[in-house]
Amino acid sequence: MSVEINDFLVPDIGYLIYRKCTPTWEIAKNEISFCDITYVIEGRGIYTINGIQYEVKRGDLLCIPRGSIRMAHCIVDDLMNVYSANFNIYDMNGQQADLPLPLLTHIGIKSDLVGLFRELSNAWVRKETGYRTKTRGQLLVIMHRLYELILFKKDPTRSDYRVKKAINYISENYASNVTVKELANLAGLNTVYFGALFKNETGMLVNQYLTQTRINHAEDMLQNGECNVTEAAERCGYSDLSHFRKQFKLIKGYSPSQCLRHQPD
Fold first, then answer.
1. Which helix (H) or strand (E) holds 119?
2. Sheet containing 81-91: which strands, arranged edge to edge?
3. Sheet of 69-74, strands arranged across
4. What is the DSSP string of 129-181?
């Protein structure tokens, strides 16, 4: 099942911290006017959100929506270490938006995600020139990583390196006559095993993935006014213009000649 997310969001960060809680640490009861993302790295704590009590533990992620009534305290014999970010998020019309994430999810300790939070916290604390641009970008990367883990149920860090190698090859050579056998040889596998592995990792057959990559590139070229339909087909590996048109319509839902009418705002 596909998940629709808003790709046009801009965060405005108000507060960031790596917090090592003390026995007396608490958050007094208050209504928050921002989104609170808290990633529990160690320990346990009690959060009460809109009157409902949650015990959080190592590997839990809290995503508390703006407007929530929030309070929290530590469990004294198992003190928490957390990364916490408070921010508002806006769509392209300047309207406040909310993240499409559950209030509480156990995602475990992901070393890459911990690293991203660490870099975000360090950049915020150092406050070097341009840090707001940098931290907004870093927070967006974290948001996308959370989408992958929680909404898309994918963990690219666990992807098979042979499939990653094939994907990288496709991204650089999509315009050439790439074959399943060529990719399987690159991965050091027979074609049957490679095809099954690729499908398991990506959810798509190799040729489906290749076709979608080509059509996505063609769409970009047409929307940017870089070339006409015939040129886009040729640049994306299609010698048969009729076949290109059929594939484009099948994937995008409209013909390549209509593409300029579908330019993003």
1. helix 111-126
2. 9-20, 81-91, 35-42, 60-64, 104-106
3. 26-31, 69-74, 44-49, 52-57
4. TTHHHHHHHHHHHHHHHHIIIIIS---GGGS-HHHHHHHHHHHHHTTS---HH
Cα of first residue to Cα of last residue in the chain, in angstroms, is 27
CA-CA-CA-CA torsion for 178, 181, 184, 190, nearest 10 degrees? 170
Alpha-carbon gap, residue 255 to 244, rounded angstroms: 10
Backbone phi and psi for residue 104, each to the nearest 5 degrees, phi listed first: -135, 125
- Residues whose CB is less than 8 angstroms from the CB of residue 37 and which lie 6 or more positions away in sequence, other chains included: 61, 62, 63, 64, 84, 85, 87, 99, 142, 146
pLDDT tens track for 178-224: 999 999 999 999 999 999 999 988 889 999 999 999 999 999 999 88
Partners of 51 in the β-ladder = none
d(CA 81, CA 58): 9
Q: Are 202 and 163 in contact (CB under 8 A)?
A: yes
Number of H helices, E strands in the chain: 8, 9
In terms of Cα–Cα distance, which of 30, 22, 19, 27 is closest to 47?
27
What would the pLDDT profile of 26-85 be if each residue is shown by its tens digit? 999 999 999 999 999 999 999 999 999 999 999 999 999 999 999 999 999 999 999 999
What token pair was written down for 202?
């990506």
